[in-house]
Amino acid sequence: MGKLIIDKLYERVEERGVVCLGLDTDASYIPQHILSGKSLDEAIFQFNKEIIDATLDVVACYKVQIAYYEALGLAGLIAYKNTLQYLREKDAIIIADIKRGDIAATASQYAKAHFTGDFEADFITLSPYMGMDSIEPYMPYMESGKKGVFVLVRTSNKGAEDFENLDIEGGKKLYNEVADKITEAGQTVKGRYGYTAIGGVIGCTHVEEGKEIRNRYSNMFFLIPGYGAQGGTAKDVALYLKNGNGGVVNSSRGILLAYKKENKELEYAECARNEAINMRDAIRAAVKAM
Q1: What sign for the dihedral angle of Cα 136, 221, 214, 155?
Q2: Of 56, 193, 214, 249, whose CB has the highest number of CB atoms within 10 Å?
Q3: Helix 73-89 and helix 40-55: axis angle, to 10°?
Q4: pLDDT tens per residue, range 30-60
Q5: Are 172 and 193 in contact, with CB atoms under 8 Å apart?
Q6: What is the residue-wise DSSP string for 237-265?
């Protein structure tokens, strides 16, 4: 069967740090000299490609948010396809942020669409609120060892309080029930480092819960949003890691737009690399200081 994708991700974090670079590329992020004389899909792909080339050795993985590409119609989806293809050629680990949440035959088609073919990724994000039958159609791909998912558990947005944090029976929160069920389901797809191929999206902006969540879900690999623009700090993120691993921390705009802080449009890829390194090193320092 070969190496499980969750083990490969764990090893990338050990080697390159916890940064997950979000290629949530809006057309407004692209410097004018790249846009000039190109179609939109060519300009987006060139921007992404140069960012990838500059950061490949200093980030663990890339998260590509499909909405930014869908919003541009066919041109956006061509850029999305080409970006994923280039990441695969570079042996980069891809998280496709698609947040699908349907069931049965429809979910099976989503699995086929995003685990094979033009839009193939290593991991995808899922919403579990229709129940475990919204997760099950993806299991055959995970059981091969080659694919994984990140399920929305405790997210970083304000609206997370509307549902995820509701009290339910036994002193639990609704997000605990979600996490408990996907932890159980993940036991059949556990890797050599103890983590399962069913990870959780756990925002780092609820720091009072950080240690409890990490301890309770010790076998769950986390995709951690909320760093930077949403208020999460390196110190906050450190609470959600286990010996500096067990999760990846997403940053999108903070890295993609680093060149604007420096007013260095021609050096946007170098600025992205430096920002990724600074983020990686800040989180490593925070882990050591715990």
Answers
A1: negative
A2: 249
A3: 30
A4: 999 999 999 999 999 999 999 999 999 999 9
A5: no
A6: HHTT-BTTBSEEEEESHHHHTHHHHHT-G
Residues with Cβ within 8 Å of 216's Cβ and at least 6 positions away in sequence, in order, are 176, 179
Cβ-count burial 182-215 (b if 16+ within 10 Å, e if not): bbebbeebbbebebbbbbbbbbbbbbebbeebbe
pLDDT tens, residue by residue, 101-140: 999 999 999 999 999 999 999 999 999 999 999 999 999 9
pLDDT of residue 122: 98
Element (H, E) at 140: helix 139-143
Strand, coil or helix: 46 = helix
Please tell me which residue in 3, 8, 38, 99 is annotated as part of the active site: 99
| Residue 38 appears among annotated catalytic residues | no
Three-state DSSP at 37 gives coil
Amino acid identity at 125:
T
- Residue 1 burial class via C-beta count within 10 angstroms: exposed 0-12, middle 13-18, buried 19 and up: exposed
Q: Are 202 and 154 in contact (CB under 8 A)?
A: yes
